[in-house]
């Protein structure tokens, strides 16, 4: 059991926190606080491979078929939009007006047409042709006159999953700022080495990134955002816990810059408090779509979670209504009073971890559990042990608090129901459940 030593200053803060939910935590660390515009059409609107006969012959200007003699009745898709009946062997693009890709997806060339096919400026782009030649259609198909970029991707046999990015071979438009290594190291018990870094982009410049060092492989990392105790803007405040979570394959963004000395304000508006965490999520999703980003297609943007300690837990709680969230949680935190209107915004599973009755946020967390557990469609669990405010979050690898957090993330973000996920928290493998020192409660679990 961890014993806390309170200075008079922190004791006073604790009294204030007890009144206002969960302010200054006793366990906080010091310092808290192109499009390629000319590449879109070939021959003034003639589908690049538009006049393809059913045998696959490409009539570059919609004239004679390479191997099919004369093109079919629709072989001269000059307007791009009609793509006549002869193009039915190649899958017609769905776009309608201005879609000169119709015959250009001749099945004889690549077997698969531009299924998205909605290029705003005619669609007869070099990218479409190249990708058909590679045997793969333009899956996203929204590359507005981005033919040159698409061509590069097609040459490598790669489909444009999100539509042609200007001059970059696919993905979202925009520029990228390289992240820089932080003067701090972190590690964990998971299979991944951890890199700690920062980035000066507007959406992330106030946060610290903890991520698996290996990027670009087959594994895609869920996104996890974290709010600090006392709403500190020191991104390294809970580095032991953040390193542990990242080592298990999560892209972690902790609020605050490394050793930042400022703090955010705690208010009754938890949704407003959550804005920095929401911004980090938005930034990470955007980076995942940018070919110029180091994080390109390395993140699982369909699996997103938030959590936080004390005041930072309120920041996490404020993300509950965001439709992109998969789950969220609290560590020694909770609303200062019941808010039924807020509870109705909860739409994902919830995890609450508390430090026992001596935790100044204990009653807040218990109250949130009691109210949310009444919502029959929301899975929720509560774990609590008499460890005080923050429990063992600041011990090696984040202690049991973080073991519980990681198991919950593995379960809900990675579908892990084994002894490293759900099995840690539910059933015969749950040592916390059989340990009388721990209070464990659950409702609505699948």
Explain this structure.
By secondary structure, the protein is an alpha/beta fold. The protein folds into two domains: 8-33 and 177-443, Alpha/Beta hydrolase fold, catalytic domain (Rossmann fold), CATH 3.40.50.1820; 35-167, no CATH class. It has 13 helices and ten strands. The protein has helices spanning 8-20, 107-110, 126-133, 147-155, 239-247, 270-273, 275-288, 311-317, 340-343, 362-372, 399-414, 422-425, 431-434; strands spanning 180-181, 194-198, 207-212, 221-227, 251-255, 299-308, 327-331, 350-354, 380-385, 438-443. It has a ten-stranded mixed sheet with strand order 1-2-3-5-4-6-7-8-9-10, sandwiched between helices. It is globular and about 50 Å long. The model is unreliable at 1-171 (pLDDT under 50).
């Amino acid at each position: 059991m961890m014993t806390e030593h309170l200075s008079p200053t922190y004791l006073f803060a604790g009294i204030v926190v007890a009144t206002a939910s969960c302010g200054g935590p006793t366990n906080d660390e010091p310092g808290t606080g192109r499009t390629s515009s000319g590449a879109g059409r070939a021959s003034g609107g003639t589908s690049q491979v538009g006049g393809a006969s059913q045998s696959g012959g490409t009539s570059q200007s919609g004239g004679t078929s390479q191997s099919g003699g004369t093109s079919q009745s629709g072989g001269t898709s000059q307007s791009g939009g009609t793509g006549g009946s002869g193009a039915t062997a190649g899958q017609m693009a769905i776009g309608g007006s201005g879609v000169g890709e119709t015959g250009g997806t001749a099945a004889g060339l690549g077997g698969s047409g531009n299924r998205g096919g909605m290029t705003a400026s005619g669609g007869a782009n070099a990218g479409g042709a190249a990708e058909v030649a590679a045997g793969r259609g333009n899956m996203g198909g929204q590359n507005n006159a981005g033919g040159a970029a698409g061509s590069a991707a097609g040459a490598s046999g790669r489909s444009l999953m999100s539509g042609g990015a200007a001059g970059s071979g696919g993905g979202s438009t925009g520029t990228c700022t390289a992240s820089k290594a932080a003067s701090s190291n972190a590690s964990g018990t998971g299979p991944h080495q951890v890199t700690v870094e920062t980035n000066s982009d507007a959406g992330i410049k106030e946060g610290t990134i903890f991520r698996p060092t290996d990027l670009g492989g087959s594994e895609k990392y869920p996104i996890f955002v974290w709010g600090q105790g006392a709403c500190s803007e020191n991104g390294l405040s809970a580095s032991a816990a953040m390193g542990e979570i990242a080592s298990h394959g999560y892209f972690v963004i902790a609020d605050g810059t490394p050793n930042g000395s400022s703090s955010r304000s705690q208010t009754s508006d938890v949704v407003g408090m959550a804005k920095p965490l929401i911004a980090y999520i938005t930034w990470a999703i955007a980076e995942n779509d940018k070919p110029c980003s180091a994080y390109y297609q390395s993140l699982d943007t369909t699996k997103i979670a938030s959590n936080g300690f004390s005041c930072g837990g309120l920041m996490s709680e404020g993300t509950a209504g965001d439709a992109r969230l998969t789950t969220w949680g609290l560590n020694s935190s909770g609303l200062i009073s019941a808010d039924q209107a807020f509870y109705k915004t909860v739409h994902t599973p919830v995890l609450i971890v508390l430090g026992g009755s001596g935790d100044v946020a204990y009653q807040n967390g218990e109250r949130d559990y009691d109210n949310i557990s009444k919502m029959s469609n929301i899975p929720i669990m509560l774990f609590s042990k008499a460890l005080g405010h923050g429990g063992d979050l600041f011990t090696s690898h984040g202690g049991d608090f973080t073991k519980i957090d990681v198991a919950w993330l593995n379960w809900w973000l990675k579908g892990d129901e084994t002894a490293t996920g759900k099995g840690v928290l539910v059933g015969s493998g749950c040592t916390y459940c059989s340990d009388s020192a721990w209070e464990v409660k659950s409702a609505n679990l699948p």
